[in-house]
Amino acid sequence: VLQFGSISLDTMSQSLEINGEAVQLTAYEYRVLEYLMLHAGEVVSKTELTERIYEQDYDRDSNVLEVLLSRLRRKLDPDNRLKPIETLRGRGYCFRLDRRAG
After folding, report:
1. Which of 17, 28, 31, 69 has its CA 20 to 30 A from that of 62?
2. Which sequence spans correspond to the domains of the chain?
3. Which fold has domain 2-95?
């Protein structure tokens, strides 16, 4: 279980809880969130993230990743107070919460 404050991601059951409440994720949302949480504090490039979430080597629309991240941000932080996922223009994304945050 990856625990960052009120956000808890169970990698065995592939489930997300926020403040003890289950939050539904699509398979792609889960993959993105898991990868970012496993690399918390690190900058993850768009290319690296795209390669991790797509199993097949088919046409990957770059806009899809932005849509996934937008949906994840709304699910993780509906009040926009924690801002757990930061976009670093031209570099990638970073999961910014630490294990004590919350």
Report:
1. 17
2. 2-95
3. Arc Repressor Mutant, subunit A (1.10.10)
List strands edge to edge, sheet with 21-23. 2-4, 7-10, 15-18, 21-23
> Cβ(43)–Cβ(90) under 8 Å?
no
Q: What is the pLDDT along the chain (102 residues), one digit of tens a residue?
A: 999 989 999 999 999 999 999 999 999 999 999 999 999 999 999 989 988 877 665 556 668 888 999 999 999 999 888 899 999 999 999 999 866 544
What is the model's pTM?
0.89
